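Entry for 2-acetamido-2-deoxy-beta-D-glucopyranose complex. Fields follow.
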Amino acid sequence: MRLISTLAFGFLALTSALARPSTFVERAVRRGRPALPAASLAEQKPSPVSAASSAHPTTRSSNWAGVVLPSPPQGENFTVVQGTFAVPALAPSSYAAASIWVGVDGWQQSADAQGLFQAGVDCWVEDGETTYDAWYEWVPDGSYNFTGFAVSAGDVLTYRLVAASEREGTIYVENETTGEAVTRLLAAPPLANSQLALQSVEWIMEDFFWYGQVPLANFGSIHFTNTSAKTGAGTTVGLSNATIIDLVLSGDDEPRTATTIDSDSSATISYVS
Ligand SMILES: *[C@@H]1O[C@H](CO)[C@@H](O)[C@H](O)[C@H]1NC(C)=O
Ligand SMILES: *[C@@H]1O[C@H](CO)[C@@H](O)[C@H](O)[C@H]1NC(C)=O
Ligand SMILES: *[C@@H]1O[C@H](CO)[C@@H](O)[C@H](O)[C@H]1NC(C)=O
Ligand SMILES: *[C@@H]1O[C@H](CO)[C@@H](O)[C@H](O)[C@H]1NC(C)=O
Ligand SMILES: *[C@@H]1O[C@H](CO)[C@@H](O)[C@H](O)[C@H]1NC(C)=O
């Protein structure tokens, strides 16, 4: 899901009167990630806050934490993004969630290329019980589950997204413990301007929206390793120039995450209570 703008908040506020889905299946079937109206795109990017405590540019978002490569090397396109993470256990809660994903163009897009190619794991805790689902999505289409790939806490998964063109991409997910893998070939949905710009890649923990922003689960920390991006020209790009995003919930002053870039190929997103 994209960064949320004020316009999107307005839209989502209208839906918040609807009943919360009562079962996990109902949620999974009905969950959609809102696409932003084109007019709001310019508002999406939070302005940089401070680079003082970090060698990396740092910014804030009301629904994202993580790391983004906001643009490819001059004249190139991002065509591959990958990262490995362990699926977190969540602290007990009556209702909370977090989504962990890797994507292309969540940060960058142009007026005529508004696609977002992404895949990850949604983690929900409800009345103390945690459920997970592994999904993939090409915005503005909704998300779909991988079937026959039941995710549990502690699974170490590698996500690799390869864009063969602005309109076609393949998602590879591998269970590092077993080598078991699932693959999905996706095409841009048949909607205007749904192709990719191939201008950003990102590794994200998202506090997403489901009839309003779901309370953020205590996910402990998420350690992304093996992170890299490649361009169509074959350049490998690591995290040395990446931008850090921390989550500041609407109405809060302080971030709810602390994100660090630990090396050229690893980063950690930690929950802050
Ligand atoms: C998504 O996955 C969950 C958990 O495995 C399952 O209960 C649900 O039916 C799936 N939804 C769809 C749309 O396949
Ligand atoms: C990954 O492998 C572990 C260890 O065999 C297994 O318990 C788990 O269910 C697997 N998860 C997925 C998503 O394949
Ligand atoms: C990348 O950018 C170049 C130049 O803009 C373009 O010709 C090409 O189609 C783009 N896509 C890929 C996948 O390389
Ligand atoms: C890194 O990612 C590649 C996929 O490109 C995968 O084959 C490999 O197992 C991963 N390595 C680690 C240490 O996770
Ligand atoms: C980092 O960014 C600077 C300024 O844009 C650029 O000159 C440099 O080549 C970049 N380094 C890497 C490793 O991408």
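NOTE: The domain at 6-271 is CATH 2.60.120.700 (Jelly Rolls).
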